[in-house]
Amino acid sequence: MPLADAAAMGCPRRAPASPSTAHLPTAPVAAPVPREIGFVGLGNMGYNMAANLYAKTCADGGSRLTVYDTVPAARERFVAQHPAARAAATSADVLGAADVVVTMLPDGPALLALLRAAGDALRRDTLLLDCSTIDVAAVQAAVAFCADRGAHLVDAPVSGGVGGAQAGTLTFMVGAAASDGVLPRAAAVLAHMGQRILPCGARGAGQVAKICNNLVLGITMLAVSEATALGLNHGLTPQVLAGIMNVSSGRSWVTEMYHPVPGVQPGSAASRGYTGGFGAKLMAKDLRLACEAAAQVGMPLPLGEPTRHYFDDVVRDPEYASLDFSAVYRYMMQRPKQP
């Protein structure tokens, strides 16, 4: 049965979801684009973000982009494809020369190591925009380190994945209030890599928002995988079950846009052999960050904790460690059934 026929089975139709963000303040793009921009971290996300930043601010000579990555081949590839950009020999060269520096790093220790390596080379009034997903304690330590040197660090983690980074449609969750004087400077750069800039409050609030969002995402992916596996074991096809969910109360971003069963959505990571997209290791990391954040305030996570442990099991399996997080469905289906 095609997806469109699911409503004929008695499931109520409803309008496409359009969650309102009207209550969220958006950042004004009032400050001019800085002349000297730096970018540190040219992985799957960072490379595409830097490419958009280059195309929209530097290709015409308006600004100059300096990039750095710990892998020399990554920075060499970037400057080969973006000839007006410059590759720095060290991260300190970037932080010492740029007015605004964007960082996209794997974890909090990497950010703190970057700052310590720069040391006194970090110029007064330099603005660092950390788009990594890291722990709140690391953000606070990095903010203090920069403040001691007269610089500014703002957390601005992203949502949208590699596809959003390529298309320049990312959402930035910014650890700054709408009235924060540094926000226009941040927005002047972030606007060239995404579509939404959402001030979340104090420093670190952007990371909290991102961690909470990905906590929901991980739990939802596991729930959809579990429910789909149950339906298939009772004879339903994944197409029929997805169609029912998408016109019923089980509807979610996962069922509509990122279904974990190959073939349900032709463009999904699942339909590409669970390649690309958002890695299972990254989801396991974000769930760990959520559990750590909950522990800091003495809060149990009755769904988050078991979801974290399940994804930990997934990424411990060498077959799944490098796959997209939606591969949790395949992992589940390949587990031995109970007698």
For the sheet with most strands, the description reads: 6 strands, parallel
CATH fold description of the largest domain? Rossmann fold
Number of helices: 13
What's the β-strand tally? 9
Could you give me the name of the CATH homologous superfamily of the largest domain? Answer: NAD(P)-binding Rossmann-like Domain
Counting structural domains, the number is: 2
Protein name: 3-hydroxyisobutyrate dehydrogenase
GO cellular component, one term: mitochondrion
Family: Belongs to the HIBADH-related family. 3-hydroxyisobutyrate dehydrogenase subfamily.
Keywords: Branched-chain amino acid catabolism, NAD, Oxidoreductase
Molecular structure report:
- The longest helix has 29 residues, at 205-233.
- The strands form 2 sheets. A 6-stranded parallel β-sheet has the order 3-2-1-4-5-6, sandwiched between helices. A 3-stranded mixed β-sheet has the order 7-8-9.
- The chain folds into 2 domains: 3-15 and 210-333, Orthogonal Bundle (N-(1-d-carboxylethyl)-l-norvaline Dehydrogenase, domain 2); 36-201, NAD(P)-binding Rossmann-like Domain (Rossmann fold, 3-Layer(aba) Sandwich).
- With 339 residues, the chain is an alpha/beta fold.
- The chain contains 13 helices and 9 strands.
- InterPro entries: 3-OH-isobutyrate_DH-rel_CS, 6-PGluconate_DH-like_C_sf, 6PGD_dom2, 6PGDH_NADP-bd, HIBADH, HIBADH-like_NADP-bd, HIBADH-related, NAD(P)-bd_dom_sf.
